[in-house]
């Protein structure tokens, strides 16, 4: 988006962005409510809504006459035909979803693989899936872009995947590969950071200004930070790599990987092993652990809770968040005994730092990374509805 400062065009573009962002984040809103939230006058809001309708970004709907007396205001909603392609490549599968600007996910696919997918393979799978959707169930869709949530270090300036160790990717220009394959603008980010963003906007962290998010996936543990309401990326975008920290392990018998990092000890693979599964998605793992309440399962969950709790203590002491959100298999670990995890954190952390602390599991469940990836794809459009290109 061109910085037009205080010019009329610049103000107009910012007002369009404001209205579109509101219906994206809040859902359908009446014109009267938009007027109140934006601080603009009614005629200006009507003009902005009309323009967004012409751009194919919002719809005006008749109000529900049962909701109020008098002449109710028309309702403005994001057009569900405006979609982003969201992608999460992992060591055992590539998940691809179509995510609407209205927040719905009309279709998603999990393409399981028996090998580590290459960047080129991921780009090809995205393009093939998109072509199939466009020729079938989503033939009337308007795809805005592609967002990719990658389990690794992603350079914020250009989306270069510097290092995704579990995928064995290094210095990969994933954004360029996907743009060439699909013809759509692409955005690439760290999966956990995008998950943190999604939970902050729509999930367990909605309305919370200071939170720590930890994501547990097939490739290990990543994290995201929201401080004063803003996602923290660090100098180059690599902030939040909790899984690479050295864990504090109080009992020597709890250690499984001598000299290992947090994700070596608190591990999805170890949970799959005690559950008797070779592989599986998050619901399958959670169900298997719940259906097999053996001593081995209980002991492994307790061991991982102890180590995870100490890792959270370090984050709480340093950052003093009001909320910790746990996603993926970490949610399963936490939910196995929430009171125990909370007691571990409170017993080891600085007391004052835990006074207002809550620990929650991710509210968006399996969708959190895909919704975060879609937000990255929607970002240019939300910032400038007139300037973003769409296919």
From TrEMBL:
Coiled-coil residue spans: none
UniProt similarity note: Belongs to the ROK (NagC/XylR) family.
Protein name: ROK family transcriptional regulator
Organism per entry: Agromyces tardus
Highest classification ranks of the organism: Bacteria, Bacillati, Actinomycetota, Actinomycetes, Micrococcales
């Amino acid at each position: 988006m061109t910085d037009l400062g205080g010019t009329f065009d610049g103000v107009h573009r910012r007002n369009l962005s404001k209205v579109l962002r509101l219906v994206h984040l809040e859902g359908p809103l009446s014109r009267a409510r938009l007027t109140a939230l934006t601080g603009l006058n009614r005629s200006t809001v009507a003009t902005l809504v009309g323009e967004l309708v012409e751009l194919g970004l919002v719809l005006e709907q008749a109000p529900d006459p049962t909701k109020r007396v008098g002449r109710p205001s028309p309702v403005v909603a994001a057009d569900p035909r405006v979609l982003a392609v969201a992608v999460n490549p992992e060591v055992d599968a590539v998940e691809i979803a179509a995510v609407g600007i209205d927040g719905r996910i009309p279709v998603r696919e999990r393409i399981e693989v028996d090998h580590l997918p290459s960047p080129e393979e991921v780009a090809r799978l995205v393009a093939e899936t998109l072509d199939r959707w466009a020729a079938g169930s989503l033939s009337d869709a308007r795809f805005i872009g592609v967002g990719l949530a990658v389990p690794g270090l992603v350079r914020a300036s250009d989306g270069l995947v510097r290092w995704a160790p579990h995928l064995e990717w290094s210095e990969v220009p994933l954004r360029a590969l996907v743009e060439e394959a699909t013809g759509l603008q692409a955005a690439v980010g760290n999966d956990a950071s995008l998950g943190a963003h999604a939970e902050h906007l729509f999930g367990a962290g909605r309305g919370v200004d200071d939170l720590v998010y930890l994501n547990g996936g097939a490739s290990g543990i990543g994290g995201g930070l929201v401080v004063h309401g803003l996602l923290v990326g660090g100098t180059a975008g690599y902030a939040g790599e909790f899984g690479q920290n050295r864990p504090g392990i109080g009992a020597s018998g709890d250690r499984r990987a001598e000299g290992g990092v947090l994700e070596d000890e608190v591990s999805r693979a170890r949970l799959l092993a005690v559950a008797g599964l070779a592989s599986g998605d998050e619901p399958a793992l959670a169900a298997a652990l719940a259906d097999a309440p053996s001593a081995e399962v209980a002991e492994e969950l307790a061991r991982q809770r102890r180590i995870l709790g100490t890792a959270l203590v370090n984050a709480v002491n340093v950052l003093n968040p009001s909320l910790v959100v746990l996603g993926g298999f970490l949610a399963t670990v936490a939910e196995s005994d929430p009171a125990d995890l909370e007691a571990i954190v409170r017993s080891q952390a600085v007391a004052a730092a835990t006074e207002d602390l809550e620990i929650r599991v991710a509210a968006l469940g399996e969708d959190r990374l895909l919704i975060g990836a879609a937000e990255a794809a929607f970002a240019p459009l939300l910032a400038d509805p007139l300037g973003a290109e769409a296919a």
